[in-house]
Amino acid sequence: MGHPACSFPHRLQSPKIGKRQKKIDQTRASGSEVRARESQGRRMAMASAPACAASELVAKGRRSAAFLQAMLGQQPASGAGATPHGVQDLADEILRCCDRALAALHGATVAAAGSAKKRKPEHGPAATPATSSKRIRLSGGERAIRRVEKKWTMEDGFIWRKYGQKDIHGSKYPRLYFRCTYKEDHGCMARRQVQQSEADPSVYLINYFGEHTCCRDDDIVAESPAPFVINFGASTRDGQPSGSPWPSCNEDDGQVVSETSDLCHSPEEKELPACMGNVAELSEQSTTVPELTSMSMSSPEWDPSDGRLVWDIGFGEILFDDIIGEFTPLDYVGLFQ
DNA sequence: TTCATTTGACCGTA
DNA sequence: TACGGTCAAATGAA
Hints:
Blueprint: H1 15-30, H2 33-74, H3 85-105, H4 109-118, E1 131-137, E2 143-151, E3 160-166, E4 175-180, H5 183-186, E5 191-196, E6 204-209, H6 218-223, H7 267-271, H8 279-285, E7 301-303, E8 308-312, E9 317-319, H9 320-324
Antiparallel strand pairs: 1-2, 2-6, 3-4, 4-5, 5-6, 7-8, 8-9
Helix pairs in contact: 2-3
The protein binds a DNA duplex (14 and 14 nucleotides) through residues 9-12, 14, 16-17, 19-20, 23, 27, 30-31, 39, 137-141, 161-166, 168-169, 175, 177, 179, 181, 193.
GO molecular function: DNA binding
Region (Disordered): 1-45, 112-135
Domain WRKY: 149-212
């Protein structure tokens, strides 16, 4: 399946490639078909299952911490049974850590997503889209669409194979070159370049080139685990705690499929437009996005006055409803305290 | 033993 | 000629 953006540099047809292809062919000849498929299945599982499981575990941990916090809050404010302040702080810290872990697991896109929605254009001159598409010239001379993303993690749900690293002139951090692991198996031409932001080393600037064709193979689709489904828990209009507002792995309905862009999104981006958000799409909807460097995440907090989760990400408070409601009916959102 | 990563070298472009 | 992108042998990890 060809995509204009997938055209590979013509150097790949050099004699060197013949040498490399020979090695690859040898490797293939030595391995049985069964082993290859097992390996393939393992890799595909690695692509999403661990993140899924980790997300679920962290969400569980967060629920437990939230209950603990609630229990502590029910303790009398004074008297013999009063909760030590440090314990409350500890519970808060656990919640924050869980939030950040979840954010990291899903590309930490929600902060940018939420802020992109709430943020007013006059907030800061340095606002730049976290994602952009433009045409650039590749080394081979051809042009291709690329997508640029800012993320707090290099993980995007795909399995990448690093094939190079280069110190970039005038840049403090090297640029890492990745191609899809399934380039040889499925001819997937997706590539990406990852470089740490100089302004904020915790932020990765990721350039995507080409389109993932590996994820379209029927056999892989059949082997791959169930798509990452968002479960916000049962409707809790009665206010009963029923689960985390964070996504978790669930076979229930409620899967929301986002529109696709010109490039293949990662499975998680496809399956998880809600809650954790998709920085690419959301940022494309808005013209400006706040600088990631100035954002600080904290736990969403329950506002009993109007029954909403409020999320302070450093740009003033953002209503959790605003993030979730963008994609999914609020009835799906299980609010918890 | 297999596979992924590292890293120096090579090549094309500006 | 400088720079960026890619290759592929060497190396290390599982």
